[in-house]
Design brief:
Number of strands: 9
Helix content: 25-40%
Largest sheet: 6 strands, parallel
Order of helices and strands: HEHHHHHHEHEEEEHEHEEH
Strand order of the largest sheet: 3-2-1-7-8-9
Bound molecules: adenosine-5-diphosphoribose
Structural class: alpha/beta
Length: about 270
């Protein structure tokens, strides 16, 4: 399909803005993982478009009957396509491009709304998963996190070995507060940013959607949207790249390499060729 001329021009402007900035961060959404085969939530083919968005009582219902919640989770098969996609998905060129930008010191931090673990699988290190990570189990009391394999599920509900609190999946449910440690990290990163890439998100779920505006209010940050479609933040963005992230982000890496006159790879190591 290839990128349009306007998308290429917008990517060149993005590269210049990122190299001129002091502290660049990214806010990622489900669109980042669309090219990994994971359905988005809204828009055509979205999970909430298909099933309707979960109601805000999910977390309350968990607290009222944690055993029942775990039994339904372990025996149920809600949204089978999401479960299968999560288990099968691999990082796509968009995820790998973010790792190259991080290795090159151009991208300082990524806040992702995605629970699919694909940024970590690609190698992102400076990352906050504001809606959690589906491979982890979290204590609702002390916020300790455990690998799924660490937690025996013969007794339901599982209880925290550190504080005796209730354990649930790390994925943040509708109606559940964002865990305080990760919320604080996201707000700190937004407050440091003077350039924010807004990648594949409809930008309508808070507090994640408020983060770019924190950067703009505090630092007059340049907001840059990479998304095939308009979003709630399009009007606030100085640069808009109307393209899929899996195609646009590798081109962004190339544009930055050109601007830096890098014949080496982005991480400063001479290319093999
Ligand atoms: N590349 C980039 N963006 C894409 C692509 C792609 N290949 N395909 C789709 N998109 C865009 C869509 O245009 C849309 O703007 O991805 C966005 C997906 O929006 P949503 O489905 O609303 O996903 P997201 O913004 O991440 O939702 C936020 O809502 O339900 C909660 O917890 C859930 O984390 C999720 C949050």
């Amino acid at each position: 399909m290839g990128l349009s001329d306007s998308a290429r021009a917008a990517l060149d402007a993005t590269a210049r803005a990122m190299l001129a900035a002091r502290y660049v961060t990214a806010l990622a959404g489900a669109g980042m993982s669309a090219e990994s085969g994971i359905p988005t939530f809204r828009g055509p083919g979205g999970l909430w478009t298909k099933y309707g968005a979960p109601d805000n009582r999910g977390y309350q219902q968990f607290l009222e009957d944690p055993r029942g919640w775990w039994e339904r989770r372990l025996n149920g098969n809600q949204m089978p396509e999401m479960r299968e996609a999560l288990d099968r998905a691999q990082p796509n060129p968009g995820h790998h491009a973010l790792v190259e930008l991080e290795d090159a010191g151009v991208l300082r931090h990524t806040v992702t709304q995605n629970v699919d673990n694909l940024h970590r699988a690609a190698g992102s290190r400076s990352i906050s998963e504001i809606h959690g990570n589906h491979t982890l189990i979290r204590c609702v009391a002390c916020v300790s996190r455990f690998e799924r394999e660490e937690i025996p599920l013969d007794e339901l509900p599982p209880m925290c070995s550190r504080c005796g609190g209730l354990l649930k999946t790390d994925t943040v449910m509708f109606g559940e507060p964002i865990p305080p440690d990760v919320l604080r990290a996201c707000q700190t990163e937004a407050a440091r940013s003077d350039c924010v890439l807004i990648l594949g998100t409809s930008a309508i779920v808070y507090p994640a959607a408020a983060l770019p505006d924190v950067a703009r209010r505090l630092n007059d940050a340049t907001l840059i949207e990479i998304n095939p479609n308009e979003t709630a933040l399009t009007d606030a963005c100085s640069i808009v790249v109307r393209a899929p992230t899996g195609e646009a982000l590798p081109e962004l890496v190339a544009a930055i390499r050109r601007l830096r006159g890098d014949t080496r790879s982005m991480a400063g190591v001479p290319d093999a060729t």
